[in-house]
Design brief:
The protein contains one helix and no strands. The protein has about 60 residues and is mostly helical. This is Zinc ribbon domain-containing protein.
């Protein structure tokens, strides 16, 4: 695990950085919340992509020839 503050390598699962002494533990609840937010973000991106495709299709049909 790399320290987000000083970038030094630490043992996996370390709670405190061996180099700078700062707290580097991330609670499991925050990791779960992050993963949930990433999943929701990806779902919203897919919905937006589909909506854009639908708008483009409508605009192509409306174009006068």
């Amino acid at each position: 695990m790399t320290c987000p503050y000083c970038q030094s390598a630490n043992a996996e699962g370390a709670l405190v950085c061996a180099s700078c002494g700062r707290d580097i533990a991330v609670p499991a609840t925050l990791i779960a919340e992050r993963d949930d937010l990433r999943r929701k973000r990806d779902e919203l991106r897919d919905e937006l992509r589909q909506a854009r495709d639908e708008v483009e299709a409508i605009m192509r049909r409306r174009k006068p020839r």
